[in-house]
């Protein structure tokens, strides 16, 4: 009996020693934060379930934070979580706040993991987000600017379908002339014709998204820029940049081909949203982000896609939300596995087949088998590869991820002045001179992170 007691005591002692090991290797819960549409929310939650199935012992708790297009709601929520010491393990992050948070040491340094697993060239060269030569995150997707159009509207106006090769897009002047042919008032008159009534337009030539990312390709195409590469010079007041901004404003106020709702007047009042106008035959072209393909492809009209118009050279921008692992995570190894999982388009295929995202994985742009996985469907129009995917070879990263104070430069100085340009109250030259003066007075040009 004494021997039995000693054996039992020995097993109990061993169990006590082993207990902490079992606890340390026990279940892990990761919290993943993100924004997005209901469709994106659904696909991500499905990806989390698949990750859990492939990684027994790890569960993922979604933290879905719907926000506005500028991301102010999302950014405010993450800031509040940080102040409360309740940051998630990983997830999406606003690109225009990435540099300041990375510099503050709030993100995990991914460089050693990327080097160890030889992942540098597995993705597009723009994907890894660096501060002082260390990777602190990645772009969640690849996104760019696209020229969408309604085939029926163009054909009715006698306008040829635009080229799909991004290197052979129409000149800006050609584009404007075609927009004039499409634009029609209620009496069938076009801009420039006697009797044309710009207040009674029934079909417009174009609608153009006018926030900062959407301005960059045209500005770069004309050899202009927003801010110098070192983040220390304001360049929207330079002639190359001013010319583009003025020509965009001319589409509204001079050429009368732009379906623009002017918040300071009744001009354009009551116009439907551009996607609705495009589908209804009230609009010829729509220049916007590639992600709008998600909704446009669901509308019942002959959707086409073409190369962006060119000023002096083809240009494209790369923009996306960022994905990061917060340094405060208690599970860095597991968080890295989930981060990689979410970067793998095979694991979140619906985000790509639906038209919402472009993949970050390099082979999905060139390998026929990979291309077929996500573009061989009715969602992606003919010419999608030539006009969109191939243009990513020249895509420049949006400076918002590295330029200090970018949200303030745009929000406090540039955007208010551009509103006056779009409404015709100022010329682009006058407005950008004023914007530069404000940027300098506020001492916002502090270089890069």
TrEMBL record:
InterPro entries: Bact_solute-bd_prot1 (IPR050490), SBP (IPR006059). Pfam families: SBP_bac_8. SUPFAM superfamilies: Periplasmic binding protein-like II. Gene3D superfamilies: Periplasmic binding protein-like II. The keyword Transport applies. Keywords: Sugar transport, Transport. This is Multiple sugar transport system substrate-binding protein. The lineage of its organism: Bacteria, Bacillati, Bacillota, Hydrogenispora.
């Amino acid at each position: 009996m004494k021997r039995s007691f000693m054996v039992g005591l020995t097993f109990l002692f061993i169990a006590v020693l082993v207990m902490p090991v079992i606890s340390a290797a026990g279940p892990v819960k990761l919290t993943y934060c993100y924004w997005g549409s209901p469709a994106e929310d659904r696909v991500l939650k499905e990806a989390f379930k698949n990750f859990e199935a492939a990684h027994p012992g790890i569960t993922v708790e979604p933290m879905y934070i719907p926000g506005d297009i500028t991301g102010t709601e999302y950014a405010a929520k993450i800031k509040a979580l940080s102040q409360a010491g309740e940051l998630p393990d990983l997830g999406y992050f606003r690109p225009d706040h990435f540099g300041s948070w990375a510099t503050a040491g709030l993100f995990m340094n991914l460089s050693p993991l990327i080097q160890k697993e030889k992942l540098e060239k597995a993705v597009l060269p723009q994907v890894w987000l660096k501060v002082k030569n260390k990777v602190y995150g990645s772009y969640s997707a690849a996104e760019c600017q696209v020229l969408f159009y309604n085939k029926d509207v163009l054909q009715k106006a006698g306008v040829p379908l635009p080229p799909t090769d991004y290197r052979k897009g129409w000149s800006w002047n050609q584009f404007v002339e075609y927009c004039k042919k499409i634009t029609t008032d209620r009496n069938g008159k076009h801009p420039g014709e006697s009797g044309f009534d710009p207040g009674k337009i029934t079909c417009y030539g174009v609608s153009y998204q006018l926030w900062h990312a959407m301005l960059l390709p045209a500005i770069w195409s004309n050899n202009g820029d927003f801010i110098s590469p070192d983040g220390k010079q304001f360049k929207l007041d330079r002639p190359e940049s001013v010319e583009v901004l003025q020509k965009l404003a001319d589409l509204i106020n001079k050429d009368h081909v732009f379906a623009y709702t002017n918040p300071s007047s009744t001009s354009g009042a009551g116009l439907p949203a551009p996607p609705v106008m495009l589908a209804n035959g009230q609009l010829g072209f729509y220049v916007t982000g590639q992600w709008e393909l998600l909704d446009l492809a669901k509308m019942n009209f002959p959707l086409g896609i073409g190369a962006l118009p060119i000023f002096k050279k083809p240009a494209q921008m790369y923009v996306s939300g960022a994905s990061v692992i917060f340094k405060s995570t208690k599970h860095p190894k597991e968080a890295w596995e989930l981060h990689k999982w979410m970067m793998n388009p095979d694991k979140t295929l619906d985000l790509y087949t639906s038209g919402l995202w472009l993949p970050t994985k390099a082979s999905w742009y060139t390998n026929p088998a990979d291309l077929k996985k996500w573009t061989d469907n009715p969602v992606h129009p003919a010419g999608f590869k030539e006009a969109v995917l191939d243009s990513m070879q020249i895509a420049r990263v949006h400076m918002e991820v590295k330029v200090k104070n970018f949200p303030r430069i745009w929000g406090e100085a540039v955007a208010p002045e551009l509103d006056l340009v779009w409404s015709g109250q100022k010329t682009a030259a006058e407005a950008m001179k004023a914007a530069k003066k404000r940027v300098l007075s506020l001492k916002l040009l502090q270089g890069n992170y």
